[in-house]
Amino acid sequence: MFDPARPYSFHIELTDKCNAGCPMCPRTLHLDRCRTDRSVVSNVELGLADFQRHFTPDLSARTAEVIFGGAYGDPLAATELLEVVEHLTDHGVRVAIATNGSLRKPDWWARMGRAMARTGSRLELHIDGLEDTNGLYRVGTFYDKIVENAAAYIETGARAEWHFIIFRHNEHQIEEAFRRSRALGFEGFTLIDTVRFGPEGRFPYQMPDGKMRELEAPTRKSADFRLDGGEIRLASREDAAEAAAPPVRPIEGIDCKSAARNSPYISAHGQVSACCWVAGSGEESSFFAGHRLGPERYNLRSRPLEEIMLDEPFASLYAAAWKADSLATCRHKCGRMRRNRRNAL
Ligand code: SF4
Ligand code: SF4
């Protein structure tokens, strides 16, 4: 599954901590004031010592990119994010960070920008609206603070992209958000269609002050928009139909995104998994147990990272399971291409 002869692209959850309470996030009790679900979050994190141990000059030289995102936490909430990024970019590694952007102060962001700029690293700021709407989904975050942080970061010459999930309550602000992104110096603007709505297109939740609200599916999709002469505009029907056609590249019925990108996933507990979708799932546990593989063998606090990646089940057992079509997560995520759709403008 993972190939030491090709550059690695690691996907790492630095921490399961977060300052926000986005209603559709698996860490959030959306019907209980968007509080944190303590049954899935244990406030763990990876730190500088873990990266110094595993990202040696040798492994760093064979690493194309380290992407900090994750299932349960925001990398910005990790105590040593800045030190970890400085270590990696000192060793020539390109980094990508996906965050809500609302923690820390502008001087911290300026230091982060200087570290990121060294290797052309990229920040994905998830801002789903403007001052009156971003906090309706990114509960507990503040638009003005995010923009202040982003400005200090971009000022250093480091790269940043604005990522925007479309809802009914923010779709009328897409054009204005795009204009602001360009004025602030963001180099990319990506619209995202979430797949987390059920067929009814509604998602009730409770704000921290007790007020009940409902997210509604948007009337626009990311593919409805086009970049035209430096402005964003609604696409024609023909443009939209072309963009909506999904790429289909089946390999034995499963097109493993993680194998294609040579991209292992590492959780904030230090567990190495095939990808973020199977990480920590009941199916992953049964798969490992079925092959008598104990979880301690896959923790980077017990063994060198690359040794784990080249061992089973990654060496051959996953490929055999895809052939037998025995992993429902793989079929669902990489068989039918059912993912959030994106349109990078
Ligand atoms: S910012 Fe990310 S990790 Fe935090 S609650 Fe929102 S989706 Fe979850
Ligand atoms: S869900 Fe399965 S097939 Fe898809 S990236 Fe993860 S391990 Fe690969």
Report what the structure shows:
With 345 residues, the chain is an alpha/beta fold. It has one domain (8-250, 338-344): Alpha-Beta Horseshoe (pyruvate-formate lyase- activating enzyme). The protein contains 13 helices and 15 strands. It has helices spanning 48-54, 57-61, 81-90, 106-117, 134-137, 143-154, 174-184, 237-244, 257-261, 282-290, 305-309, 317-324, 328-335, and strands at residues 8-12, 28-29, 35-36, 63-68, 94-99, 122-126, 159-165, 188-193, 202-206, 212-216, 225-228, 231-234, 265-266, 272-273, 341-344. Strands 14-13-1-4-5-6-7-8-15 form a nine-stranded mixed beta sheet. Strands 2-3 form a two-stranded antiparallel ribbon. α3 (81-90) runs parallel beside α4 (106-117) and α4 packs across α6 (143-154). The longest helix is centred in the first third of the chain and has 12 residues, at 106-117. The protein is globular and about 50 Å long. The chain starts with 7 loop residues before the first strand and ends with a strand. It binds iron/sulfur cluster (SF4) (2 copies). One iron/sulfur cluster is lined by residues 254, 256-258, 274-275, 277-278, 329-330, 333-334. Its cofactor is [4Fe-4S] cluster. Keywords: Iron, Iron-sulfur, Metal-binding, S-adenosyl-L-methionine. InterPro entries: Aldolase_TIM (IPR013785), Radical_SAM_PqqE_MftC-like (IPR050377), rSAM (IPR007197), rSAM_sf (IPR058240). This is Radical SAM core domain-containing protein. Residues 4-226 form the Radical SAM core domain.
